[in-house]
Every structure is written in C-alpha cells, then in structure tokens.
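Appendix B. Chain record.
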Amino acid sequence: MRAEQAGGAPAPVTGSWYRPMTARPPDEPHRTATNLELFFDLCFVVAVAQAGATLHHQLAGGQAADGVVGYASLFFAIWWAWMNFTWFASAYDTDDAAYRVTTLMQIAGALILAAGVPAAMTAGNLTVVTAGYVVMRLAMVTQWLRAARGDPSHRRSSLRFAAGITAVQAGWVLRLALPEGPGYAAFLVLVAAELAVPIWAERAAPTTWHPHHIAERYGLFTLIVLGETVLASTVAIQTALDSHAALGDLATTAAGGLLTVFGMWWLYFAKEAHELLTSLRAGIVWGYGHYLVFASAAAVGAGLAVNVDLVTHHVELGPRAAAAAWTVPVALFLLATWALQVRPHHLGRWHAALVPVTAVLVLAATLGPEPVLATGLLLAAMTAASLVAASRSAGL
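Structure tokens predicted for this chain:
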C-alpha cells in the first residue's frame, strides 16, 4: 500500500515508475527540498554563471548597454524556467521515475541554454538559447498534462497551464525569424504572455503549493547565486594577483566585496519568508519580484570583477562607470529584498528605513574614491544598526 501524508494525499513512492499525480497538501509537515530539486538548482546555476561572466566581459569591454539588455533578457529565461518548475514541484512532486526523467529533460534544456548564452549576448544569435528554453518549457507541459490526468479537481488549471505554455513556446520559435527591431517588440509581448499564463491558469483552481517549501526553495537558490558571486569574485582577484596588481588596491576591493556579500546574505535571511505567502496574490508578487533579487545578486559578481579589472588596467570603462557596475546591482538587490522580505513585516519606521537609506548611500558611493570598500562598510553598518533596532523592539 502507498504511504499516506497528512491531509490524506498519498506520499511520493521513491523508485516507482509511474503513479497518479495527485496534489500534495499545502500544510504537509516536514516538507523540504529534495535531492532532485537541489541538483536542478546546481545545474541551473551554470546558466547563471554564463550570463554573469558574459556580462562582466561586455561591461569591461565598454559595451555596457548591450551587456545589460542582453543579461536582463537571458536571465529572464533562466529565472522563469526555474520558477515554474519550483512552484509546480511544490504542488505535484511525485518523485516517481517518470517525474524524474522529465525533470532531467528540463536540466538538459538549461544546459543547452547555458551553452548558447555567450553567442546570444555578444552576437545576438538566439537559436541555441531558444532551443534550450523551449526544451525546458515543453518538458513542463508534459508535467501539467500528467497533473490534469491525475488530479481532476485541478484539471482545468493544469490544462490552462499546458495550453498557455505551448502557445507561448510557438511564439518564441517564430520570433527567431524576425529582424532585430520587431524581435525586441516580440520579446516584450512574449514575456508579458509568459507572466500572464500562471495568473490566468490559477484563477481556474489555485494549485496547492506549500509556503514553507517555496520559501526554502527560493532561499536555497539565493544562496547558490550568492555563492556564484563569491566564486566569480575569487577568480577575478586570483587573475589580478597573477598579473602582479597592487596588493593594497586588491585588498580593499576584496574586503569590500566580502562585506557586501555578507550583508546581502544577512538581509535576505533576516526574516521568515513563508509568513508572507498567505494568498495566491501574495505568492505571485513575491515570486515574480524575485527576478530582481536573483538577477541583481548574480550581477554583483560581474560588477566586482569589473572593478578588479580596473585595478589591473584591463577595462575600457572609466572609474565612475566601473563603480556603477558594482553599486547599481547592490542597490537594486537591497531595494528588491527590502520590498519583498523586510517591509511586509511592518517593522518600526526608522528600522524599516535602514535598507532604502543604505541603498541611496551605496549609489552615492559611485562618486567616491573607494566604491567597493564603501559599499561593504555601508552594508556592515546597516546590518549592525538592524540588530540594534531588533534588540530594542524585543526589549533586550
């Protein structure tokens, strides 16, 4: 007999080939990320690393506008495919062999997309990226068709997901035939269509995603993206050391970068996110808003690498532009995290103002002599001040 979970839903049977895909209860106890989900994240971060590395090279080469536009576009594809799998898995993870094989197909699509990122960002060749993205999304269609068959109470919403995703993928393929100008317009239309599909589908019958599980999955991906930023920064500094750059300049850059990443981690995990996921609307706003969190966090590594290049005189940007490559994504991360993770907890007025004030000061550091170190010190001060404010609120 199959094991039963809280709420009467059958628990996943590891090792079985196929079982009905029934909805898992949103209050299931001890729901945590699976090994497959962790593997999924690690493979997706390859695409994140490719996008960040290409952004670094384009910024350093003086192609800031093209680099930022290309990065924002490609990161949408990475984030959107990851996000759709995450929310689906929260409601319908059966962990049978069919589910695992379909998920591995999505991973294969992510790796195809990652292989095409440099050509897409530097030469505008979107063929490989589109192929990888469509593989990921069509694999997701098969999952939704399984859900429609196995869960009659959510069949209408599952079929809406399957139909909507399929239609938009046809649009992405057709977009390859368009010239550059109409292609950009088509991109915006297709992005809007992708974002609209879950809203339209969930109106039929909201899926049973698990708030604790979703919050954990987003937190884990944030950790992986921050880790990729640390790795990119370490590689850049090692390259600078090999070129015998000035140790004093590298030391301040490295210290500022480390303090900044520490502060970013502290801010993101300061409050429990699952408490905010109280409705479908809250989940959509919170989930969609994380595009800015993930994209800015990954761009921080590229910004630090650009400033290391500035120390070694291997960059075509001026000091202020190089500084902005660092301060802008840090400030964006602070504001996005504040809006999604901090402000909704209704902290005291001056406590809640700490993050946006710090973001403004970080942007002002663009004009200073040591923008990376100044940013790190500002985030360290913000963290210390938030701890003092939290202690006072608790009466300690």
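Further analysis of this model is presented in Appendix C.
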